[in-house]
Amino acid sequence: MLILVTCLFLFITALALVILRVTQPDARYAWLVASGGAALAFVSVFIWLVQMPFQLTLPAWKPESLFSTPILFSADGISWAFAIGIAALTLSILLTAVTRPVFANSLSWAGILTLGGMGILAVTANNPLTLLLMWAFLDITELLSQLISVNGEKNSERAVISFATRMLGIGLLLWAYIESLANGSMVVFQSMPSDTGIFLVLAAGLRLGVLPLHLPYAADSSLRRGFGTALRLIGAVSSLSVLGHIQIASTGFTPILMILASVAAIYGGWMWLRAPDELNGRPYWMIGIAALAVLSALSGNPIAAAAWGCAIILVGGALFLSSIPDVRLSRALLVGSWSLSSLPFSLTGGAWAGNLSFTAVFALATQALMMAGFVRHALRTSGTESLEDQPSWAKAAYPAGILLLLVTQIILGFIGWDGARQTGNLILALLASVLTLGLVWGTRRFRIFNPVRAHWVTTTGAGVNSLYQWLWSLYRGLARLAQSITEALEGEGGIMWTLLFLILFISIIVQGIQ
Amino acid sequence: MSAPFLWIVLPFIAGALILFLLSEKNSAYIGGAISIILALIALLIPIDTALLLGSVSIKISPAIQFFGRSFELSTADGPLLAVIYGLAALWFFGTEASSTAHRFVSLGLMIIALLTASIAVEPFLYAALILEMAAMLVVPLLIPLYQRPGRGVVRFIIYQTLAMPFILFSGWMLAGVEASPGDVSTIIQSGVMLSMGFAFLFAVFPLYNWIPQLMEETPPYATGFLLWALPTFTVIFALGFLDRYTWLRNTPQIADAILFSGVIMTATGGIFGALQRHLGRILGYAAIAEAGLLLLALGLRSFDLVNIVFLTLIPRGLELSVWALALSIIKRKAYPLKFSDVQGLARKYPVAVGALVIAHLSVAGFPLLAGFPSRLALWQELSVQSLAASFWVFLGLLGLLIAAVRTLAAFVMAGEDSKWEMNESWTQAAMLGVGVLGIFLLGIFPQVLQPFLSSLPALFEHLVQ
């Protein structure tokens, strides 16, 4: 029930904003309503801790004999961490919205609150059916937002391709579900057959651009801070949440996936380190951290996967929402590097508990690249927005929004979920930290570590996607073949061809039956 | 008043009157209203049960005789009639928005009346004849008077006509099978005859090539109606066969053959759909894949077979009507509906394009949309019987998803300076909006169909035991 309470705070607030927009377009307290609702939702997630673990089951689909799996949400030691991350991000976006040019856009805030609510439902989804519905909602929302906001053929096409890859992820989750259904039992993540776990990893990896490596998001999208951050990060964390719920059994296919994830991790880390700014680097941030989460899941450490998922939203959220050059806040952002360090009692303290085997080197390198990149972006001094002309409450709200995410990271290191108070592997954590320091030192001295220009990033993205040109050629070949068959069947001699095919078809069926 | 008069004779006469007496605009509203009223009567007033309204007693008698044949509609038929006429109303109201009202509504009403007669006729084998009559009545719906019919139309009528003798022969033989159940050769012969008849009726692989051709040659809305109506009644006809003949139900080879045909239809429909570049043909292949799903459901060895069939059939009417309406609106701007013709149209016709893509995704089984629950139910049963068959069905639906993505990509690839505008009329936008809302509603709360689904299995009592 508490899950519903939190989500209702967000949904009702969103509805109130829409009503306000229609009835009183110039209402000055819309921001207060939005922030108030988000704050209530944030506090309510803490109340979950009193009752955890608990479940929420929605009325079953009917006829019940056809739908054995209910729509089920569960608050446990993993989903709580994701939920608090999403609630914190939602509140933080609204608090920092005081600096945005779209300050008066209450519809955008309604969208953020709805996304937050759906995100919380997605991360608490306890079976594939529930997660399928949540993913579908988030994907349709993202597609619509992208299509409305982008211009030009290329950008529109990229939005559709991005939707298509996430749709394939949905397909893989669906197939894992179908395989589980073949066993004939009610399916929750914990009871799914071990061999379906690999499909879940592939589904999450595909949605995040890790398996196989691709850029699901356009770096030059006009959806930047605010709504864009909510859309990107909540979408990513809802994809990653599935990895925190399952223990992946090792199969013959696992090493291949680990190699692919390692390649994605290194690529994401390197590009993140060299990105011209944090918003252009955001796709690489997500690929890099998501690849670490996938590697953790494949190495049998779902808690680490969840920790990296929380890092995406909390550490990344704080950085992407910082738009005002402020030395004190920039230094405070360095708490994020602590959260990424996997040192004891940090957010990612349990990151090195799994058996990463030969990929440990790549994971370590990626972690260092991500941390170094984070430090570089956090300490930048450029920024286009200012608090100078804002009223005093706005001057207080903005830093509060950033600090909220930083404090939540620290809290998650100590309480509330299965990954809290982890001491992990101190040696590897220290090694990552030393490497990071070396990279930070190097970025100021060696040209190779210097930021690249934005257009270069785009070109590289296209280069990575060249793999898909081969798939496109295959598709065109198949289309030509289909065209030939269609012409034969629909042409003058079509009926004769059809009868011939029919005889063949019947003989195949007869053979099959025998 | 008798039920066959109410749901067969009355709409048939109404159709004829609309053709000769009403203007185009009025015919959509009158036809839609008649269908709605008939659906509500079917839903609210039980057949063959006396109702007292004050001092007046009303009773709808179940049967009439016509040329020595009986037409019977029982109480159990009520929900089915409500569904059929409810969905038909949706199609008829849509004609106003698609500007195809006049002949469509009148012929449509007559076709629905004939198809309803195919459910009611006894001996039920005569349904094959009535289905053939309905198919013939479809022809003037598809092509204007004095226009030479295209190849698709000709093949459609050839295949539907070929189905009739096979079904009638099989019916004659089935009587022999019932008399001597041990006669294996008669069983095989009648089984082959029946299979051939239904293969033509269902347009199984490779007999379906007239569907994409038809979608290319004829108005999408009329063809969409045909692709909804004929398979719907063919499925009910097939369910009647399975329900009546125990040996058909209990022969695993026959169930396997139906299942296998369904799998091939779904897989080939989806895969060929993914490789098309014409929006009409894509709709045709999607309809083929969905008919394959219906066939697949018929081949399941499950007591939930009837539930799954109707769970697939009801949203199908909504999806196809929305899709066909959107396509007919777009066709006026982008003839002949190739990808190159529709590029960037999302910014000119956002409602039509959005509705088309949503309907397409729904047919492909995208979660949250009307088609998803029925696919899920189907997989739940099918995966237990054969994971390989489930995979091929999955592949077919994946093909439809790819087609949806390609369609969407073509629609949204507008130039830099292209502005968002809405060129649909308010009627069109409202019809499509209601349809899309319905698709989401059925996808999120499929239990709204439960009042129908709980009653429909009573029509086929042997199949649910």
Which SSEs are present, and which pair or pack?
The complex is a heterodimer of chains A (514) and B (465).
Chain A: H1 2-23, H2 30-51, E1 54-57, E2 72-75, H3 79-96, H4 106-124, H5 128-149, H6 153-181, H7 197-208, H8 227-245, H9 254-274, H10 278-298, H11 302-321, H12 327-333, H13 335-340, H14 360-378, H15 392-414, H16 426-443, H17 454-464, H18 467-490, H19 494-513
Helix pairs in contact in A: 1-2, 1-4, 2-3, 2-4, 3-4, 3-8, 3-11, 3-15, 4-5, 4-8, 5-6, 5-8, 6-7, 7-8, 7-10, 8-10, 8-11, 9-10, 9-14, 10-11, 10-14, 11-15, 14-16, 18-19
Chain B: H1 3-21, H2 24-44, E1 51-53, E2 56-58, E3 63-66, E4 69-72, H3 77-98, H4 101-120, E5 121-122, H5 127-142, H6 151-179, H7 184-202, H8 210-217, H9 220-244, H10 246-250, H11 252-274, H12 279-298, H13 305-331, H14 339-342, H15 350-363, H16 371-385, H17 387-412, H18 426-444, H19 450-455
Antiparallel strand pairs in B: 1-2, 3-4, 4-5
Helix pairs in contact in B: 1-2, 1-4, 2-3, 2-4, 3-4, 3-13, 4-5, 4-9, 5-6, 5-9, 6-7, 6-8, 8-9, 8-12, 9-12, 9-13, 11-12, 11-17, 12-13, 12-17, 13-15, 13-16, 13-18, 15-17, 15-18, 16-17
What report would you give on this structure?
- The complex is a heterodimer of chains A (514) and B (465).
- Chain A has helices at 2-23, 30-51, 79-96, 106-124, 128-149, 153-181, 197-208, 227-245, 254-274, 278-298, 302-321, 327-333, 335-340, 360-378, 392-414, 426-443, 454-464, 467-490, 494-513, and strands at 54-57, 72-75.
- Chain A is mainly alpha-helical and 514 residues long.
- Chain A has two domains: 2-214 and 225-465, no CATH class; 475-513, no CATH class.
- Chain A has a two-stranded antiparallel sheet with strand order 1-2.
- By secondary structure, chain B is mainly α.
- Chain B has two domains: 1-122, no CATH class; 145-460, no CATH class.
- Chain B is 73% helix and 3% strand.
- In chain B, the strands form two sheets. A three-stranded antiparallel beta sheet of chain B has the order 3-4-5. Chain B has a two-stranded antiparallel ribbon with strand order 1-2.
- The longest helix of chain B is centred in the middle third of the chain and has 29 residues, at 151-179.
- Chains A and B meet through helix 5, helix 6, helix 18 and helix 19 of A and helix 6, helix 11, helix 13, helix 16 and helix 17 of B.
